[in-house]
Automatic annotation (TrEMBL):
Disordered: region residues: 1-20
Organism: Paracraurococcus ruber
Lineage of origin: Bacteria, Pseudomonadati, Pseudomonadota, Alphaproteobacteria, Acetobacterales
Protein keywords: Membrane, Transmembrane, Transmembrane helix
Superkingdom to which the source organism belongs: Bacteria
Protein name: DUF3429 domain-containing protein
InterPro entries tied to this protein: DUF3429 (IPR021836)
Length: 197
């Protein structure tokens, strides 16, 4: 950090005036921005991810996303054969969509990661693609194995994210919510598979 008395924006000569004019800042604002702004490079990897709490909408939108899982699993057990078959198909389709969505989270993290986390870019992008491939494969399988594969995909992705969180690459609040939702979703998928005659 440059001492304020030696900072180029604090001077009274023509170079300092030209810099201030080009920046469109008055001297006090320029000093506040240039002399007091903390360096982002001083933060350890994952620091920005751990500190902020989860947005409040995530705390109710996440659980709301379980409703299709629960409804389809319930219908798979209680409805007639035709409706139950459709419920298992709907359960698999929704499970595949959610598993693909969870992978996309890691593309977002990779694209917005600070320079200190550059080494994690390739694993993050890989983790963003693999869940989609698992989801696609599950839809090509018969209903029973497909639903089981989706459940394992959800739990496996959460397990890999746990390793990433221990390295400071994921927000801890996200991970807690992620496990709670994944266990409920996986239980619904396994319940759907168990409802097969």
């Amino acid at each position: 950090m440059i001492p304020s008395e030696h900072h180029p924006l604090q001077g009274t000569g023509r170079p300092a005036q030209r810099i201030r004019r080009r920046a469109g800042l008055a001297p006090p604002a320029a000093a506040a921005i240039c002399c007091r702004m903390p360096s982002l490079s001083n933060h350890p990897p994952g620091d920005f991810l751990r500190d902020p709490p989860l947005p409040r909408p995530a705390l109710w939108l996440g659980p709301a996303g379980l409703l299709p899982f629960l409804a389809a699993a319930l219908l798979a057990w209680t409805a007639g054969a035709e409706v139950a078959g459709f419920a298992r198909f709907a359960l698999a389709a929704y499970g595949a969509v959610i598993l693909s969505f969870l992978g996309a989270v890691h593309w977002g993290l990779a694209l917005r990661a600070p320079a200190a986390e550059a080494g994690a870019t390739a694993p993050r992008l890989g983790l963003g693609v693999v869940p989609s491939l698992i989801a696609w494969a599950a839809l090509l399988l018969p209903p029973g194995p497909g639903l089981v594969l989706l459940a394992l995909g959800l739990l496996g992705t959460a397990a890999v994210e746990t390793v990433a969180a221990r390295r400071g690459l994921l927000p801890t609040g996200y991970l807690r919510l992620r496990w709670a939702l994944s266990v409920c979703a996986a239980a619904s998928l396994l319940a759907g598979a168990a409802s097969l005659p």
